[in-house]
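Quick one: structure tokens for this chain, please?
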Amino acid sequence: MMESSFLPRRQPFIYLTAALVVGILSEKFIAPPRALLLLLGLSSVIYALRFIGRKKATAATLHLLIGVVCSGALLAQADVKEAKNPRLIRLFEAHRFSSEDAVELTGVLIAPPEPALEGYYLEVEAQRLRVFDEVIPASGRARLVIRIADPEVQTTFQQLALDSGSRLRVLVRLERAHTYQNPGAIDFNEFLERQGYDLRGNIKSPLLIEPLGRVRVNPLFAALDHLRLRMLRTIEARFREPEAGTLKAMMLGNRYFLDAETSERLRQSATFHTLVISGMHFSLLAFALLNFPFFKRAPRTAASAKFSLSVTPRKREDLFKRPKLWRWAGAFVVLWAYALMVGLAPPVLRATLMISLGLLAPLWFRQAVSLNTICLAAFLMLALKPALVADPGFQLSFAAVAAIVSLALPLLEKCRAIGQWQPTPATPHPPNCVPVWRTVCEMLYWDERAFKREMYKAPITYGLEKSALARWLNRWRVQGWCRGVVGLLITSTAIQLFTLPLMVVYFNRVAPVGILLNIVSGLLTGILMIAASVALLAGALKFSFAGWLVKASVWTVKLAHYALVNAIHPFLDIPGMTFRAAHYEGWQASLYALYFVPIIALMVVLDHWQPTKKTPRQSATHQPQTTMEAARREAESQARHRRQQQTRRLKRLTTVSVLLILWLAMIAVIKPPARLPKGKLTIYFLDVGQGDAALVVFPQGTTMLIDGGGELAFGTARDAAREKLSAASLPQAQAQDSQITASGAEDEIEFFESGVAIGETVVSRFLWSLGLTKIDYLLATHADADHIQGLATVARNFQIKEAIVGRVVENNSEFAAFVQASRRQQAPLALLQAGEQLQIEGVSVEVLWPLRTLEPALRSANNDSLVVRLSYGANTILMTGDIERESEETLIKMGINLRAEVLKVPHHGSKTSSTEGFLEAVQPSWAIASVGQRSRFGHPHQVVVERYRKRHISLLQTGQQGLIMVQGNGQTLQISHYENRSNRN
């Protein structure tokens, strides 16, 4: 019987890494006492040593794994306790200072200022803080950003001559990243903490930065930093946008110049990972370093006593031989230098470790690429930083590589064995597989020409029945191409299977088209990187034809970039090629872990499948046999045959069952059921910062989204980019972490964090957390960006039945984007005005404002907001948009019934609304203000707050309470709010 490849003695780090992960997670969810962990861990190691001495391998292994579990928990505890006083985050949580305080931070720059679209990012290692007159020793890192508004400010900043090691004093407000308090919302604080930052802050002017000299830094690190900055400037000089932004991200890890449309297209095609440095990039670099033609000394001859240098290409069979020591050492140094230069993000560190272990493995007579090698790299990374276990980039990166090593490569190896089968003493019988599969394998691997050469030299010749198409493909020498395409398809499919739940839970994206497009994107990424490198080197060396070579390379980059970005275009109108998926929340998210059970079972089934294994048979005997002996032998042969048939059927049944369970698990991951309350009128008021968004769920499950949040534009470059994304003609959804070597995961999160798209990361994520993939009605109260911008994104991400507006607005890009997105969903645009009424599942939706008119508005106006009153039995809720005093007074004069138990506070609580007369007419018991935690406009105004307090109206704010849920059964109302998972400012 064949020995499994997954035994602990063959691949020990599979089990050691799993035990380490269990220990780290136990600290997160259980938090066992440190004393208990030390006692249990020490006793486990002692017992393991005793069992090793007694040669009881199983018992020793179990106790060793328990010890590793305890070690993982202890490492996680140490990682958490490392952030003690006087760390910035601890000082902040202890209220030694607040986000409202302008503090004087003294520290050291740990890297040169990182260029961004409209400013610079500064990474400061803190030394001390001055809060008012108090000086506090401090440690930890702060991530600061300074906006550069004009050339004069740029000049002032450049004169500071900041560099790595610069000691500075800066006046800044430090804060935690804002996390929207809704189910499904991304926690940007966790992202920043995984990157090693305590707090972040905005520097308003270079004049607030005071250089204090410099401290000594590692000269190697400084040289790498300067080289990276020079390359960034060179890329900017050589290439135009959007190619320059793509190359900065792809080659140097700077993602702040990415074009919005480029990012969107690549998310749709599940190829966003090509924009960030990952395993593919390091593999290309390693291959070039180890296999590029090298200069070789020509042999000494009688005709020449001198040495000459000639470029000698390597033969194909030489590509896979162990490189010379100098080349191996050079590749090792260059790879780690490049990794340090671009930053040791999890995918970068994983790729560098994997390649380094692959180079070192043959020295210990180990397989260079194996699941054990992957787990060893994961073990080392987690031991150094246990918090990586929750990092999306870490998870996606290792899932993708594990898919290649444990599923794709073994399957291709089985296919090769089937296709190349010839009768030998080890494999005397034809492959044990279905005929169709055997034919396909022969088409890819059978070498008819080599077989004929072998038969020509052999003393005994014979023929083999092989597929005619295999002979034809071999004759025309196209098998290599077919083999490569099929291998890439199998690899890409395996990666899609392994990363599916992670892509859904982090990015709500499913892209089967990625199986094909990742092959294309890999080729185009290689072309982009090679052409860009040639352009950079040719421009630096300046030889005779350098100018022509630079121009050719630039055009190659432009064409490859266009093909990469637009590869998704032919597939956008094909249903199911790329779509958004809902995700599970809470305990239901455990389904994502259970998904990997059939995946592991499939790996085991594939490992035990030996299609060319020799079948044991009873040896023939020529000794005389009695009739009884012959009958007994015949009975034994038949029984053995029956057992073999039963075993074969059981294996096939097991394989089919595993595939069926995997298929059901995929459906469960992709299509979670909607989790909506039934039998009640439910309204969710979302925390979207400065903006409005409310989901209405009617008693039988019909949904209406009233506004979708957004960001008000103030003319900055980022606002222009965001407006471009909103108004662009994007046929489908936004969308990351796919043949994902998956650095895309954390990089998409950073992309959002640097310019949060409310409709994507807040509103859509909340809707997906409820299991929704379609919304019946989208209602835009008016066309201000903080109300309608997110609706355009929702219209791209979800199936829409109908879009509703109160006024048509001309010359408004946000309104146009909303209309265009609705039309792509074939959702009609309805115009509702005062006096109209809808009846939806027993709920009356009365339209109270605006007044009837068919003339479009020239611009969006607060007083054009849709005002609707929802009535369900005795329950009444008044949704007011952004109406102000003028509209409130007109509604009162018209004598309209405004009475409501719950009032959505008009215009976020501005002092121009919520007049005394209006509150007297509504007489609410509760008022809900949709406003940011710290409103830049001072909402809700203190005067307005006093008006509500004077009338004993309970005023709730989404910025403080988070998501607020109002639920009515027709008689009574219940109001609850979301408990934020992270510490709030």
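The longest strand covers residues 119-131.
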